[in-house]
Amino acid sequence: MDAKLNEVRDQAESRGFVTYTFKVGWYNDAVGNAFKLPFEYDALGVLLLSSPDMFELNFLPYLKNNPTQEVHRDPLDCSVADFVSHLKEGILKDEAVETYFDYETDPRTRRPRILLQTVGHVAGAAFYYQQMHVTNSESSKKLYGVSIHPDYGGWFAFRSVMVFPHHFLPRDLSPKPPVDVVPGNEDRLKLLLLFNDHWKDNRFRDIIQPQKRYSELQQKYFGTLPADRKILVNDYLSGLPP
Asked: Burial level of 72, CB count in 10 A (0-12/13-18/19+)?
């Protein structure tokens, strides 16, 4: 299985993704019953994270190869699902794999099928900063959490998880804590306030100096309402300046 995981990692990197392994039990220990996954504690999970390069290395090529993308589906979501399907039908064709995506919800509860920021934290990919990590005596306002990657700051996204029910990590393996890149209370509070109140201007993403940011085209795409992104896609496909 190690050889297959190495090949998955290499193919992912060639498309602008980064992979991290974790035990399903680490995730289950960190979430409530409604979000626990039905697998053994030591079962192998692989987290798929998109770096700033994913847009140009995976998404735009996908658009070129699928110019008649169905309008009722988000094309970027489809590009990620297409890559995961490529892995499952290729390297992993002989493996049992359960997949989860960032856009999926449980049809019965309408909750996310998986809490990817929590996965990212227990897998050691990116520290998940939450309200419990700050002391803020001036406000009782609820602040939603945000993950910050040691290399990309906030310029990344968790995209998918693959669980391998028949493969297990060593029983004595412990989780590697994520790098705490925003250690001070004042900076953590600043991060959460920027994310909650000013997320559109992207300042929260630069709470640390990232190695790379989204390209101008990528920022324009994500800054456009989903209903209007088809215009950008059509402009790109027709060769017009976006």
From this structure: exposed
